[in-house]
Amino acid sequence: MNSKEFLKAVENIVKEKGIDKEIVFEAMELALTSAYKKNFNSKTNVKVLINRETGDIKVYSYLTVVSDDKLEDYPDEIELDENGEEKEVELFNPETEIKLSDARRENKALNVGDTIDTEVTPKDFGRVAASTAKQVIVQKMREAERNSIMEEYGDKQDELLIGTVALEDTDNYFIDLGRTNGILPKKDIIPGEKIEMGSQIKVYVTKVDNSGKNLLILLSRSHYGFVKRLFELEIPELSDGTVLLYSVARDAGNRSKVAVYSENYNVDPIGACIGEKGSRIARIIEELHGEKIDIVKYDKDPAVFITNALSPAKNLKVAITDPKKQEAMVIADHDNFSLAIGKKGQNARLASRLTHYKIDIKTLEQASEEGINFRDED
């Protein structure tokens, strides 16, 4: 790789990957410095400079100008400082340093900290430079690609994406998201669904991790956030803020509860989510492969909200027993007790997640036996 080829390679990586040209040159200079020391067994201070206009590469050995006070050898007696500790001794290194008095014999304008450079470019250094240049350019292209992907997907956590099912192993599906793959663990798909290779699929991003060698994007279709994003996708009133989504609780593959409300009294938030003849909610249920969805109205009054959340149970009496701990007791008549609890406790469990309250549900008989009596507030 001659100077022109090198400059062309730099221009290509700058144009294609959007990397700052100076970053490439500086990385090349550092890499070539290391390559020189390794290939030519140099113990001196060296630096490599690349001409930004011509691409010419030159190696310089340099001596740093130091004070004449630096010692040539370690002293026989150690001096102590005011605290009685050994003073740090700075020794002169003739391979990397030159004393000020000697330096000024060559150039009177030199001061401590300046350097005296001597070109030491080997005749066959072009071979080393070509090999190193290729390695650096490949490395910078990979870094640029990785950074670019991170910029594109780094803020996608908790978002809904559409990808293509590309690969499968024992535990995971690998979803092609365009410029990178995401991992959809099989434990995070909707129970009972069949995923076909090559099919397009909606996925929820649960984690974006850039700490390892490769960007990790974890996906899910069983996460409650998946239902939330589907609602936002299908219901325009949620996107424009006319309807607000308070919370979602989900038992993937079986049932979800979604709490919504509107600050506009003329808007029916539940009706907006259901859509004309159930068209909107039908599309969401289809994506969830028949998972049942209860849409309930959020209320600032926790007792009312808990009552709504325990739907389809009715005629419930709710008392907030501990507002700080967010605990509530619910009394249900015989006909509604089993509905409030739900199959295997599912309805009560989802209502608790939805409202963020610990809910204790009792029958009238149980409450009476425990001496509990309360009335709905007037």
CATH superfamily of the largest domain: NusA, N-terminal domain
Helix content: 25-40%
Tally the helices.
12
What's the CATH architecture name of the largest domain? 2-Layer Sandwich
Number of domains: 4
In round numbers, the mean pLDDT is: 89
> Largest sheet, order of strands side by side?
7-6-5-8-9
State the order of secondary-structure elements, H for helix, E for strand.
Answer: HHEEEHEHEEEEEHHEEHHEHEEHHEH
- Strand-residue proportion: 25-35%
| Top-tier CATH class of the largest domain | Alpha Beta
- Total count of strands: 15
Question: Which descriptor suits the 3D outline?
Answer: elongated
Radius of gyration: 36 Å
Query: Uncertain regions: pLDDT < 50 for 5+ in a row?
Result: none
CATH fold name of the largest domain: N Utilization Substance Protein A, Chain:P, domain 4
Described by strand count, sense and barrel closure, the largest sheet is: 5 strands, antiparallel
Instruction: Please give the alpha-carbon distance between the first and last residues.
Output: 89 Å
Structural class: alpha+beta
From the structure above, extract its key features.
5-stranded antiparallel beta sheet; alpha+beta; N Utilization Substance Protein A, Chain:P, domain 4; 4-stranded mixed beta sheet; single chain; OB fold (Dihydrolipoamide Acetyltransferase, E2P); GMP Synthetase, Chain A, domain 3; 4 domains; 12 helices; elongated; 15 strands; 378 residues
Polypeptide structure, described:
By secondary structure, this protein is an alpha+beta fold. The protein has helices at residues 3-17, 21-39, 100-106, 125-153, 224-234, 236-239, 269-274, 279-287, 302-309, 334-341, 346-355, 364-369; strands at residues 46-50, 57-66, 97-99, 115-119, 160-168, 172-176, 181-185, 200-209, 216-220, 244-251, 255-261, 292-297, 317-322, 327-332, 358-363. The chain has four domains: 3-73 and 88-152, N Utilization Substance Protein A, Chain:P, domain 4, CATH 3.30.1480.10; 155-220, Nucleic acid-binding proteins (OB fold (Dihydrolipoamide Acetyltransferase, E2P), Beta Barrel), CATH 2.40.50.140; 223-298, 2-Layer Sandwich (GMP Synthetase, Chain A, domain 3), CATH 3.30.300; 303-378, 2-Layer Sandwich (GMP Synthetase, Chain A, domain 3). It has a five-stranded antiparallel sheet, covered by helices on one side. Strands 1, 2, 3 and 4 form a four-stranded mixed sheet that branches. A hairpin with a 3-residue loop joins strand 10 (244-251) and strand 11. Helix 1 (3-17) packs parallel to helix 4 (125-153). The longest helix is centred in the middle third of the chain and has 29 residues, at 125-153. It starts with a helix and ends in a 9-residue tail after the last helix.
